Amino acid sequence: MEQLPKRAANYVPLSPVGFLPRANAVYGDRTSLVYGRRVRFTWSQTHDRCRRLASSLLALGVRKNDVVSVLAPNVPAMYEMHFAVPMAGAVLNTVNTRLDAKAVAAILRHSEAKLFFVDYEYVRLASDALQLLVSDGASQVPLVAVIDDLDRPTGVRLGELEYEGLVSRGDPTVQLPMLADEWDAVTLNYTSGTTSAPKGVVYSHRGAYLSTTSLLMSWEMGAEPVYLWTLPMFHCNGWTFTWGVAARGGVNVCIRDARAADVYGAIARHGVTHMCCAPVVFNILLEGAAATSAPNQRQLAAPVHVLTGGAPPPAALLERVERIGFHVTHAYGLTEATGPALACEWRAQWDHLPVSDRARLKARQGVSVLSLADADVINEDTMSSVQRDGKALGEIVLRGSSVMKGYLKNPEANEAAFKGGWFMTGDVGVVHPDGYIEIKDRSKDVIISGGENICSKEVEEALFAHPAVADAAVVAMPHPHWGETPCAFVVPRKKEDGDQNVQVCEEEVVDFCRKRMARFMVPRKVVLCEALPRNALGKVEKVKLRDAARKLQPAPAQKTTTSNSKGSTKAPAGKSGGGRRDEQNPVAHVMAMSRL
Predict the structure, then answer these.
(1) Residue 323, CA distances (Å) to 282, 288, 294, 298 in order
(2) Over the stretch 199-221, which tens digit does the pLDDT of each residue have?
(3) Quick check: is 137 in a domain?
(4) Looking at residue 58, which CATH number applies to its domain?
(5) In 83-125, at which residue ranges do the beta strands (DSSP E only) sit?
(6) Which of 207, 275, 267, 270 is nearest to 241 (CA)?
(7) 0.90 exceeded by pTM
(8) By CB atoms within 10 Å of each CB, which of 23, 349, 480, 578 scores lowest?
(9) What's the burial of 195, exposed, middle or buried (CB within 10 Å: 0-12/13-18/19+)?
(10) Which domain CATH number covers 518?
């Protein structure tokens, strides 16, 4: 057959950004976004605002492949930048608001961000991060623009630039750069900002587009959904629903803090149909139902479809939330797969099974989303598939267009991650006879606390820095709110003659960790022991430690206060102004997914 050429009429680079002009043309008069009591936009208005912002970015000198970072909760600006930044040809980097200043600075340095948008609540955190860049002699310090509250402006500033000012001054008619190659980068997401060398995951326009469309189909999200943002948009770009809601002409319901009262209120006020969250949110919503004048057995006016990921929800928990009216779909994903890679697609014949059996099936991670060419569980030594018996263990591997382009500036990590035509997830699982995959363990010992990934090795390294610690190991222990939390097993260093300073206790170790890492990483329990269990090769037997940790109870959270230093802005009461997780408002910071 003759080779026919590509033409402008039959070949257009795939990009999720294209969902916005389509939404403007098809759903222009429909509501696109609501926030607070007074903010409501249509898709035509959102399209106009995004074009204006893209115009202003170009005027500030932002060019193709420049990184634009943003530190913000689920507010309108955070949503709009998912379109406006790539419209300008730049790459969007959404920063985890739970990180500390050192981690934020590491991301800004590694990404070489040219522009840094900061929500007013995080001005203190951003200031500290920028100061670290300056003091470390960073070759590039980004321009800073504050995002003030759109519903109730505060007047907080950090420099001269402000988000709404950039939007208002932008020209919506300016000629924006055209995407020539769908392999170009669209976003940059960090798997961990807690080390000196964070891993930056680069998404392509093509991968983001295909991941968005496939997830819409896998979850069966129909037209005109009302989507509640209980999942942070900084987690894999909101599992691609930042773009997906536009594709379906839906409504984005943005809430700054996802407290139980706010969630129930938004559901009732806006007729929410869809939301995403970690399983731990279910517990918090159930516990907070009474406070919202909604009894635990209350029925929602209409079903709310929930996509969840992380540790499999217990059967009893699934039964309770589904009784209220939440229809739950379980998924598995990771940053490197552009969010969800597997989804537990429901089969009609399962509807007639007992509740416990349905919960067991629903808790499995499921089958590959449509953007993947394949997903499997293999023996890493032979690179062959394991038996589909639900028992044979192997590593979960993925292949498809929604897998990341690679890690930014990290060739060693790329070589390790891509092997034999597969992306190696590092997660251990099984394949059931029906083809559904289920995770059994995490080979990298990742702890999932409220959806946040905690590398046990990083916490262990901090513990080893303690002068009185001879040995240490960190594993996950159950937590009533967060699902999992770090538990540290510590071997004190033996006191030598004349050594008056070698001493260690649980409180002192916890305080030591608080000064060296983000608060959600700090161990909630420290167990002092004479020695760690080790195998014949000298490796710590963490299986035994996990068994011991399951029998323990986490220490109660300590209340914290925010200080207000000269030249910085103190966050309002109950808000997180320093990158910490607010222990008094657990729902607000647990909106995430396994490995995301």
Answers:
(1) 12, 16, 13, 8
(2) 999 999 999 999 999 999 999 99
(3) yes
(4) 3.40.50.12780
(5) 91-94, 115-119
(6) 275
(7) no
(8) 349
(9) middle
(10) 3.30.300.30
